[in-house]
Design goal:
Elements (H helix, E strand, L loop, with lengths): L1 H19 L5 E4 L4 E4 L8 E5 L4 E7 L3 E6 L2 E6 L3 E4 L1 H38 L1 H8 L9 H8 L4 E7 L2 E9 L2 E6 L2 E6 L1
Antiparallel strand pairs: 1-4, 1-7, 2-3, 4-5, 5-6, 8-9, 9-10, 10-11
Helix pairs in contact: 1-2, 2-3, 3-4
Length: about 190
């Protein structure tokens, strides 16, 4: 379910991205003149010519051609005639894409965290729900609070006596929680 939410969220951000993205990376022409063709075909009609050193705006990179815009004219330039990349434009473009992805991850994490907090408050009340959400441990917390806070342990050692049931929750890395009759009595890190 959360993967569908992430996909929908990313799709939404990429639709926004398509409207507000910075200039697409531009490539410098480095080998003489480069005709901008009507179609991605060597025998296609020339629409204009990009002279040595001029920039063309990249729309899409194809096998042999680059779908581009030069001086307001959209067409196709031969990739073999382009050798130097305008690194600042490329960096700006990829920084923007990375920011969109990072923002999407943060927003998804915040949404999931807010949903979880709401769920924990409904189950345990506001004070204990917030404590469980922030992974706190305290004497007297219930076994279910512990499991919601710390997650499932690697192992549970159970002792049953005439005085009740004691459990040792083994979380690894020297972390143990001791529960007696359903309530946390002690822990060690």
């Amino acid at each position: 379910m959360k993967y569908w939410i992430l996909i929908l969220f990313l799709l939404n951000h990429f639709l926004i991205f398509a409207q507000e993205q910075p200039s697409v990376p531009k490539f410098l022409l480095s080998i003489g003149t480069n005709p901008i063709k009507e179609k991605p075909d060597r025998s296609s009609k020339n629409l204009t010519v990009a002279i040595k050193g001029s920039k063309i705006e990249v729309i899409e990179i194809l096998d042999e051609f680059i779908h581009c815009r030069h001086n307001g004219i959209e067409g196709y330039a031969m990739k073999s005639r382009i050798s130097q990349v305008d690194l600042e434009g490329v960096k700006e473009y990829f920084d923007y894409v990375e920011k969109i992805a990072r923002d999407a991850r943060l927003n998804l994490y915040k949404e999931e965290s807010d949903k979880r907090l709401k769920y924990l408050i409904e189950i345990f009340g506001e004070q204990d729900g917030k404590r469980v959400h922030s992974k706190q441990t305290w004497i007297g917390m219930t076994e279910s609070m512990l499991l919601e806070s710390w997650g499932q342990p690697k192992d549970i050692n159970t002792t049953v006596t005439k005085y009740g049931t004691s459990k040792q929750f083994v979380y690894g890395n020297g972390r143990y929680v001791y529960v007696k009759n359903g309530k946390v009595e002690a822990w060690q890190n």
